[in-house]
Design goal:
about 300 residues; alpha/beta; Rossmann fold; N-(1-d-carboxylethyl)-l-norvaline Dehydrogenase, domain 2; 2 domains; 5-stranded parallel beta sheet; 5-stranded mixed beta sheet; about 20% strand; globular
Length: about 300
């Protein structure tokens, strides 16, 4: 398969790197010093699952230089999806599939509006990884996991082929029967830990161990479950308890990427996470007071970060 990884941060660098390890034809799309280092010394990954290096690595900042591919892993931040969709047009072939791996649930519709719904799958992943320095991805926690499937549930040969490629390098990958429900389950978890962590400015371990902030995590999750039900998304009854178990399994020092960006004064995924809950709550007449508190408390800083 010819695979393009659009956005070579923690997610794109790790999962794209594993696909290159599996022998697939992978081109990384990156920029700046990170791109230069990948082009000159390769893509290095330090991982709790074993370090590796892709060298030489194919990398560029110009999708037009790659041309049509089979699979595109879309790994930019959620707030960059619309711009990325326009830039990825040169990658589109007759059978190209796009797999968004953003936090949140909006990306498939955003990509579909620009690239065609028939080309876009649903997708999500679980990993704690980031760019430690140019050319180096550091995976520090969470068992790597990736899921993708057509939103209508139909089979697609390229997805099956991609699944087998991940299995070659022992990456846990799945094609869920209901990818939308699976994405919402991830959304429940990530919006809770990102939002409450960003307010508290503390690690996941600190937030989950303090009774008050632990209760906030549960309240954020419950509001999202209620919004999902209002939108016709059916989730398991034990979803909150399972997601809290997952929170408890995470490294004490873990910090979600949205929180990391907010603490650094950078633009973040606030709109795609807690902001999206508030927006969808308003659309469905579903109260979301805890998510609203988080969103409107963080919005002034977010606007400053974006120069608004």
């Amino acid at each position: 398969m010819q695979i393009a990884v659009y956005g070579t941060g923690g997610v794109g660098g790790y999962f794209g790197g594993r696909l290159a390890q599996a022998g697939e034809d992978v081109t990384f799309i990156a920029r700046g010093e990170h791109l230069k280092r990948i082009q000159t010394t390769g893509l290095r990954v330090e991982s709790i699952k074993g370090d590796f290096c892709i060298s030489p690595a194919q990398a560029t900042d110009d999708p037009a230089a790659i041309g049509e591919v089979d699979v595109v892993l879309v790994c930019v931040k959620a707030w960059q999806v619309n711009e990325a969709a326009q830039a990825m047009r040169p990658l589109v072939g007759e059978k190209t599939i796009f797999i968004p791996l953003q936090n949140g649930v909006d990306a498939p519709n955003q990509l579909g509006a620009e690239l065609g719904d028939e080309n876009v799958l649903g997708g999500y992943c679980q990993i704690s990884a980031f760019i430690a320095e140019p050319g180096l991805i550091r995976h520090v926690g969470v068992e790597p996991y990736i899921a993708f499937a057509r939103l209508d549930g139909k089979a697609t040969p390229l997805a099956e082929q991609l699944l087998r490629a991940f299995q070659k390098v022992n990456v846990k990958a799945e094609i869920p029967q209901d990818i939308q429900a699976a994405m919402w389950e991830k959304f429940i978890f990530i919006a809770a830990v990102s939002g409450v962590g960003s307010i508290a400015r503390q690690s996941i371990g600190v937030v989950r161990d303090l009774p008050g902030t632990r209760r906030m995590l549960e309240q954020v999750m419950q509001e999202i479950v209620t919004v999902a039900a209002a939108k016709g998304i059916v989730l398991p009854k034990d979803v909150i308890s399972r997601k809290m178990d997952f929170v408890d399994s995470m490294p004490m020092e873990g910090i979600p990427s949205m929180q990391r960006d907010i603490m650094a004064g950078k633009p973040s995924e606030l709109e795609a996470q807690n902001g999206a809950v508030v927006r969808m709550g308003i659309e469905s007449s579903t109260p979301t007071p805890v998510n609203a508190f988080i969103y409107y408390s963080l919005l002034p800083q977010e606007n400053v970060a974006r120069g608004l």
